[in-house]
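Work through this protein:
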Amino acid sequence: MDLREELPSDRQAVRDVHLQAFGDHGPVVADLVETLRDTITPEDGLSLVAEQDGQVVGHVMVSRGLLDAPRRLVEVQVLSPLAVQPGLQTRGIGSALVRHALGILAERAVPLVFLEGDPGYYPRFGFAPGAGLGFRKPSLRIPDAAFQAIRLPAYEPWMTGTLVYAEPFWRHDAVGLREPNA
């Protein structure tokens, strides 16, 4: 398996991975990826793929967010979404993508990375509940246990406050959980 930056020629394969991995929610996630892709720069954010036998089998995106800290706004990163083709899940592909992304972000002196995700999955990488680390979630619709953060070496103790998602998360209504239609 190779981990590398996403190329323009990977766009449809990345979309297909998200459509398959997220089921009914797949179109929202795939559209979010399309919009967030335009915010990624060589210095800010990441779009990484896992390739196996010449096929894209996994993808992770990391995009810019802000921490509204008492002292000042802090540029942080948001890891979302992460997807692996359903038939290849539980084989370490997602873990490899997350570890690789976190390594790059630490080298870039990013202080904090946030996510909404499975509290049974992400602690293996060092993520912990955000509230316990002094952070407030950007929406009440995010379950407390799903709101997670990891402090990287550039973190400083004064960096506490509220996470502010980039506008595409709100535009695509990809924040927290909505109540099912009754």
Notes: Residues 131 and 144 are 7 Å apart (CA to CA). The radius of gyration is 16 Å. The chain has four helices and nine strands.
